[in-house]
Structures are given as structure tokens and as C-alpha cells.
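Issue 218. Parser rejects a valid record. Input:
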Amino acid sequence: MLGLDFGTTNSAIAVARPGELPRLARFGDGAPTFRSILHVDPEEADEGGLPPRITAGVAAIATWVESGGRGRLIQSIKSHLASRGFTATDLFGRRYRLEDLVAIVLRELGRAAAAQLGVDLAATPVVVGRPVRFASARDADDETFALARLEEALRQAGFGPVTFELEPIAAAWGYRERLDHDELVLIGDFGGGTSDFTLVRLGPAATEILGVDGVARAGDAFDARLVRRVAAPGLGLGSQRRTAFGRELPVPGWLYDQVERWEQLSFLKSRETSELLRRLRGEALEPQKIVALVHLVEDDLGFALHGAIEGTKQALSRLDAAPFRFADGPIALASTVPRADFEAWIEPELERMAACVDDLLARGGVAPADVATVFLTGGSSFVPAVRRVFADRFGAERLRGGEELTTVATGLALRGRAAA
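Output the parser choked on:
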């Protein structure tokens, strides 16, 4: 049985055979996770009308770097599955539906599973993770819509019979393998787009789900807060411009909504926005900041900017303050970010997570003292402020973790094996 964790930022796939420990596929860089990212290279499309070349994972990043930033990088595709407004996009003369782009990522995962784990992809059942609530989903119909799109992408990628399972329940199955006794466990699974929680009674031979819940806030939202606070001001956010009629107005703030999510930065390269940026450059009271913004957009530097942001965020999990540096051409951004400031900026996300956990406990009739263990998984579980949400409620001594980026994939495979 295969377990597939298609993530907003990273994905993983595992197999669980009877009597064996789960095995994870590994990818080009030897890691057990696959970057959920695509690079679309227009070079072939420009020659003879061929479709653009699309690569996935670390190969996508490598080809983008080797080409000097040519083409487009596409990430966080999962975040758009429930969005009815994102049906398709034109990429260098070819139209691709969202399902088509997701299928390219999933196809690479499937090939790795077939080659390394010795499975017949079309014949092997696969349990696929899904969040409690998809990012962008407003109601149950949107959730169903997202699952239908994901299922179609899986079929395109060559997968066989598909069963969906909630990602935090899969994480619970992964944690259950460590237990030799029954206990009440709260599972927190923090991805790029969503944070999901499960209250579950676990034991060596039992799994009783008491409740699940989640919020569409996680690592990407933390990154967006950092971009707005430490990068966007140097790119013109909050600065003024003087119009031809002598009025002083702020530079439009909506431009920086796109900068917050690097995969959306290329949308600013439209003809209308390019004309707006040229006009702003002439009107700005601090023109060097708009020049820097134009360079960021025209050279498609969103991925590089967010890489610097990610490095600062990771450093803030270890340090009380961390440097932020990003320089390229006219862009010269540099500051020191105190952890206390970062934690204040992400307070709205932390409050939503805390409220979700409190509500889950209340619906289950469970007091914090009744929870024996809190198992935290996913990249954002390393953020000290996130851990403090749980330490304050349950005590730091009850927090557990480990294999934060692959627990869901192995749990999905174990869940499938148990059901077979």
C-alpha cells in the first residue's frame, strides 16, 4: 500500500508492506521529500511552436538557476485546488489547467515510487492525504471541488485506486507505531498552507478519532508577514507619490499583496501593471524603492527573495534575533529581525491556531490535563511561538515530534496497509 503526502511546499511518498517498516522514496538530492515546485522553460516553445519544457522538484530549481531566471517558477499549487477562480493559466502559448500542473508533480513522485519501491503504480492502491480544510475553501462544496481536481490529477499521473485520508489522522497513524500502551493524543500537522489538528485515542491495536479541525494558516502566512514587514518597505510599501495634479498619495498597497506570495509575483508582469509601475517610478518621492520593485518583478526574483525570508525564519527558531539580507542590482535590503517582533507579527495566525485547538477540545469534552501527548509535525512545528501555544496549554514535557516532514506519508501508507 502506498501513502502519498502531496504538500503545499514538500511532498513525500512511502510504501508499507505486511511485516515490514514503511519505506520512503528518495529524490534527486537524496532527500525523502520532493519540492512541490515547477519550472516552465519557454526556450523550446520559442522554437518551432513546441510546448514549453516543464520540470519538477529540485530539478525545477536547478533549471531555473542554470537558465539565469528564464521562464516561470510555480509553487504552492495545492493552495489553489479549492479556488474556482483558478481554472487554467497560459504558459508561453499553451494553456494548462490546474489539474494538469498538479499531475506533473504527482507523476514525478509516482515514477520514484515505481523505480525505488518496486510497485506497479496503476495496480497499487494509494492513500492520499488531504487537509481538514483546503486553503481557499469557503464551504463543503469547495472541499468536494478540490478533492475532485486532486483525484483527476492523480489519474493523469498514473496512480491506481485512490482513497483520501485526513493528514492529521495519517500523522496519528505514524505516531501510533511508537506506542506500547493506550493514550489520548493531540496531533498538530503544520504545512505550508494549512494547520490541522486531530484528537485521537491511540494504542498498539486501536485508533479512535475523537475529533478533527484545522485552519488555512501555516508557514506561508508566516512568510507573508515577514515579507510585508522586512522586505516590502524597501520596495516602496508605505512610501508616497506625487501625481501630475500635485496630490500626494500612497503607493498602491495591493502591489505588495502579490509580493507576499512569490509564486504570484509574475502576475505583476502584465502590460497594465508594467505601465503602472513605470508611472509610479516617475511619481515616487522615493524613486529608488520603486526601481527596486520593478527590478524584482521584471527579473522574477520572488523565489530568491522568499528564500532569504525562509532563511531568516528558520534562524529565528534558534536565535533571539536574525539577519535579513537580500541584494540584487538596485535592490539592497538589510535588517536585523528580533524574534519578539516576528512573534508579534504572526500573532493573528497563532490566535487562530489556539482557538481551533481550544474548540476541538471543547467539542470532545476533553480537558488539557487529559491529553497525555501532543505530537507536532510539519515544518512550522519548529517555530518556538507555535510550540508555545501547546506548551502553555499542555506543558512542554508532553510535546513530541520527529520526522516532521515525512510522518504524514508513512502514516498514510500504514493506514492503507491496516485497511487492506
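Fixed in the parser; the record now loads. The first strand starts at residue 2 and ends at 5.
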